[in-house]
Amino acid sequence: MTQHYDLIIIGTGAGGGTLAYALAATGKRILILERGGYLPREKDNWNPEAIFQDHKYQTQEQWLDRDNQVFSPEAFYNVGGNTKVYGAALQRMREEDFGELQHYDGVSPAWEISYSEFEPYYLRAESLYKIHGIRGEDPTEPPASAEYPFKPLHHEPRIQQITDGLENLGLHPFHLTLALNRDEDYPAQRPCIRCDTCDPYPCLVNAKCDAQVTCVDPALQHRNVELLINTRVTKLITDASGTRVTAVEAEKEGEIIKFTADTFVVSCGAINSAVLLLKSKSDRHPNGLANSSGMVGRNLMLHNHSALIAVADQPNDTIFQKTLGVNDFYFQGPNQNYPLGQIQLTGKAKWNRLKAFMPDSVPQSSLEYIAKHSVDWWLTTEDLPRWENCVTVNSEGKIKVDYQANNLKPHQDLIDIWTNYLRKLDFFLFFAKKMPIEVGWHQAGTCRFGSDPTKNVLDLNCRTHDVENLYVVDGSFFPAMGAVNPTLTIIANALRVADHFKNQ
Ligand SMILES: Cc1cc2nc3c(=O)[nH]c(=O)nc-3n(C[C@H](O)[C@H](O)[C@H](O)COP(=O)(O)OP(=O)(O)OC[C@H]3O[C@@H](n4cnc5c(N)ncnc54)[C@H](O)[C@@H]3O)c2cc1C
């Protein structure tokens, strides 16, 4: 069976979902193919055991690490992609992140597009995903042409107390910019109830502005847009010259289906987009489709992340904890003249989540005590794009993530500095855990964009240099990703590429 479309988009996450939304009103006949289904709305969405012990919603796939050891990636294949479980803290990259930045471990390369070219798309992305925040509160924030669309989510008393303490110590804590369907002035009219099961849970009341709720569902209101779920694209097929994709092959419930289109967009997330291109190799593209540069799958970035559980005598009764960020050490530390990264609060850790941090011998009662008294932080440092860090597919078709973290010294500096600040606020016990390869939540860089076809997979419109009707629109395009959360940039870029399609 073959059906023809103007455009086929593969994947419904931040990149693909936003692109579909932005093009829906053009009248183009668009088919969206998504390997997963709709994430079920059920009580387990908010059940910590289902999330942290059973890993109920993550893929059952197993990938290989650089030593060929099997691991279970925390990847989510469903309509909306990983945004169904994301923390919804969406931030612009800093203006300096678009330029070359000297880091401890080397240079973070410049983008060929400036911050000012991205700014209007950031603005649209913030409006679409209903960002809450206060412009200018964060001293590292880049210039913006308008306020955030919504007031920030207020700090609960314990977090306000910590904010005041940090300000007294000379820091500049700010309200985290969050993508939630809530209006602090009229909370009853918006679904978000400020619960304690936001990050990293799916939202049972659909109040998180994820790609499904915000983009895919509204796009499907247009009769020219179709979505096929549980449909995994296995291969892109080109014409004999290898310069145009003519069809995709997909597997749905054991059947192989083919779809043809004028234009194809791969939006499978940075790891799976590279995998699909590599698996689509042919005589004309022996190293993988659109891979004459050899860069497909290379330069993988994952960020250096650590969770820091800080315990004080004072109980922490906060319900919605993820309201505070600190960027005072984004570009340098007190004694470090290199960038360190970002500090933000994460969802309130319950004892079930803390189990992953502690030896099995720690009894539940101790975990409960810690959970009652802890404030839970998430620290992120930029990792630098390295050719050696790559995604490949082995002879059995298994995904291999050959990744070694770099720029670790500034990450440890950040943890040490933050621990010392928290000591001054009477925290006395700390559990820091560097996130392992399973937590590839912030994946980027595997099909980077740039004007030189010998060094980049994509041109500046995210079209592949080698194949004239093939685009990649997701986290793959980043040449470097700063230390802020990447998704607002993925969304803004999808809106930018949509404008390119409209202007063609
Ligand atoms: C727990 C968690 C918390 C996070 N918190 C934040 C946060 O607070 N802020 C932030 O900025 N980012 C956060 N992130 C990261 C954010 O979710 C990602 O940056 C973002 O979703 C990436 O968008 P994408 O379009 O590149 O890929 P994805 O969102 O992963 O979308 C890819 C889509 O493609 C589909 N797909 C893959 N392969 C195929 C195929 N072969 N055929 C068909 N479909 C396919 C997948 O099922 C998926 O729907 C978080 C992620 C996780 C997991």
Number of domains: 1
Assigned CATH architecture = 3-Layer(bba) Sandwich
The number of helical runs is 10
What do we call the CATH homologous superfamily?
FAD/NAD(P)-binding domain
Keywords: FAD, Flavoprotein, Oxidoreductase
Family: Belongs to the GMC oxidoreductase family.
Protein name: Glucose-methanol-choline oxidoreductase
GO molecular function: flavin adenine dinucleotide binding; oxidoreductase activity, acting on CH-OH group of donors
Blueprint of the fold:
Layout: E1 2-10, H1 14-24, E2 30-33, H2 48-53, E3 63-64, E4 70-71, E5 101-103, E6 106-108, H3 115-128, E7 131-132, H4 157-168, E8 174-175, E9 178-179, H5 211-219, E10 225-228, E11 231-238, E12 245-252, E13 255-266, H6 270-279, E14 304-312, E15 324-326, E16 342-345, H7 351-354, H8 364-373, E17 374-381, E18 390-393, E19 399-402, H9 408-424, E20 427-434, E21 470-472, H10 487-502
Parallel strand pairs: 1-2, 1-13, 2-10, 13-21
Antiparallel strand pairs: 3-4, 5-6, 7-9, 8-15, 11-12, 12-13, 14-17, 14-20, 15-16, 16-17, 18-19
Helix pairs in contact: 1-5, 1-10, 3-10
This protein binds flavin-adenine dinucleotide.
Residues 10-16, 33-36, 74, 76-77, 81-83, 85-90, 200, 232-233, 267-270, 272, 276, 441-442, 474-475, 485-487, 490 line the site of flavin-adenine dinucleotide.
